[in-house]
Design brief:
single chain; 237 residues; alpha/beta; Ribulose 1,5 Bisphosphate Carboxylase/Oxygenase; Rossmann fold; 2 domains; four-stranded antiparallel β-sheet; three-stranded parallel β-sheet; 9 strands; 29% helix; globular
Length: 237
Amino acid sequence: MSIRLTKNRKIILAKIDNKRKYSLEEASSLVKEISFVKFDASVDVSVRLRIDPHISSSSNQMGRETVRLPHGTGKNIRILALVTKDKELESKEAGANYVGLDDYIEKIKSGWMEIDVIITMPLIMNKLVSIGKILGPKGLMPNPRLDTVSTNPGKSIKEIKSGKISFKVDRFGIIHTSIGRVSFSPKCLSDNLTTLMKKIIRVIRSKSYYYKGIKSIYLSTTMSNSISLDVKSFVKE
């Protein structure tokens, strides 16, 4: 049984040569041309790492890392600041969407979850124990390594609003994250991806006993085919 291709799908397939490895500049332009959805689609990257098969998959893996994209992701990040009274104004002025403490903890217990990031303070962490099982599976539990637990919540909020993202390797050795929107210029997408890849390369080189380099990099948009990038665009042997 043959699958009938839509007009837009035929256009996408005609534009992408699956036998090619595209340069960063080529891919940053092409990824904008293959999006036909009627909204400002996310531009996503998938980076597959080479993993030493002799090391247990549960040991020495990459934890969640952060990087500040120079042009942000184009997404409106909804931040909840769980802070003490004296830090509420600072958090509001820094751009937090919701600011409070006990009232929001109770809202979360009741099922409210209209947030993307939670920023809190070290002395507040013990209050979050009661909602840890709710936040943990959703990746919302504040973490000092990600600067989401800070004595300076205003600074953390500003950094996230200005383009700081987190990423980690999944159990298949792949990093998935967003680097912008289709409305971004090719240069902005290129800058963001270059910044992300520099951070990934630094991290995997520091864990060279486990990660043996980068196997592949693919760029795509929401509901589009993926574009294979030339790894040498980022890794200079």
